[in-house]
Amino acid sequence: MTRTLLILLIIAFVVAVAIAAAGDPGSASVTWVGWRIDTTASAALVTVVFGALLATLAWQLLLWFLAAPTRAARARAETRRREGAESLARGFVAVAAGAGADARRLAQKAADYIDDQPALVRVLAASAAEAAGDEPAAMAAYNAMLGFPELRLAGHRGLMLMAQRRGDAGDAVRHAEAAYGLTKTARWAWRALLEARLAAGDWDAALSLAKDALDRKIVSPASAERARAALLAASAARRELSADPKALEEALDLASQAAKLRPDFTPGVLTAARRLAADGRAARAAQLIEQAWKARPHPGLAMAWRDLNTAETPRERARRLTQLAEANPDHHESRILLVEQALLAGDILQARKAGERLDRPDASARVCGLMARVAMAAHDTDEARGWITRAAAAAVEPDWSDIDPEGRAFAYGSGDWSRLVSQFAETGELIHPRLERGERVLSELPDLPVAYQASTPFYAADRSGDLSPLIPDDPGPEDDAAALSAPRPSPPGRRRRTAR
């Protein structure tokens, strides 16, 4: 309004100047209550405009005084809102910092100041009570949140986490199921349900969850595929323990699906290969093992490949091992296979040559045992002892720890399978529970004689009764003279080879 009047005043001033410049200022006469005012037209115009401006300013001033109470109330509300927002922000920071007492104080202050954001205030109150360790107050706050549609999901999550902390698995699952039914995107609820199904060993229910997660797009297709493959393999491994022919047939079907989904998940491939071999389909089992070897070599696959044919000669088995190694020639397991096939074929030189690619400063205990077998095959007991001594301080290969002392691969219980499925679904990597627990694995160290080669004749003479007199601990002068006059034995024709 004021701006409009100023514009009109400027226009009136310009018009008055124009009239004055034209040489005809004009005239204006005003008669009011006996008074008469005569003036020029331009002066009258400017006077009218100025009067209107003054009247407008007076009216605006009156309105400003009349609106003072409302303006003051609005200012007080803005101050409270600002104080409440600051208390709310500081309260969440206190919760994140674990300062429960400060968080509760700030939550109460925010509740006193904020009226238009009750949801945030309730969330802060529940989180503050939880941070302060007041479990009854926190549970009451989360239960109160269940009465508000926009806060129901947060309330279920808070109650689920509290139930998990106090070890109430049933209550945690109940809240996770309720949250999973409220929204299609609650990944935390899906994850909690999956972990509960895995902990209970309910592979079929977990498999349904994995399929549902893919439909809801909660997880990526790759993660869902890994979860399905691992769960199918776990279900097949459980059914394989049964003597029921129907269960064994189901085990083959489930394991075959797992191997098709993820050839790099070794447990599924091994179960499928075992069942196929038991059904007389060794060619199909060999195909599965070869595909898995290309994707991810594992010693369990090599053992399954070896056992596909138990009626072959060592040279025939060596040729088959070479065929598997050539499927992924640069892998560590393939290099080990090449050494083993050379040992089976009796080619010691080739075994030593292939072993050179394995002889590294950080060689594992399994590699050291394999090289000890090569040395034993070459009749070099001292070198073999050196490798076995080195194996005592070497690390165990994680994949080799998947094989128990009886030679069974992935002979795990329900708890180990649960962790295996969860880890593979998340990262695509295998875990090694037997290695984590420090349990024994299948030994790769050969059995050696009790003495070095140079001492072997003494033990042989002891067995035959023709043992030369031992050198006395404290020989006298007569013994020294006899020792000097005795003929020296000729050095052995074979040189001793020192350990590496």
Question: What keyword list fits this structure?
Answer:
mainly alpha, elongated, 500 residues, single chain
Structural class: mainly alpha
- Quickly count the helices: 24
Radius of gyration of CA atoms, rounded to a whole number: 45 Å
The residue ranges in which pLDDT falls below 50 over 5 or more consecutive positions are 451-500
Provide the spatial order of strands within the biggest beta sheet: 1-2
| Helix proportion | 55-70%
Give the beta-strand count: 2
Description:
By secondary structure, the protein is mainly alpha-helical. Among the domains are: 2-66; 70-145. Helices cover 68% and strands 2% of the residues. It has helices spanning 2-21, 41-66, 68-97, 100-113, 118-131, 135-145, 152-165, 169-182, 187-199, 203-216, 221-240, 245-261, 266-278, 282-295, 299-306, 314-325, 332-345, 348-355, 365-377, 381-392, 414-427, 433-437, 456-464, 477-485, and strands spanning 28-32, 35-39. A two-stranded antiparallel ribbon has the order 1-2. Helix 11 runs antiparallel to helix 21. It is elongated. Residues 451-500 have low confidence and may be disordered.
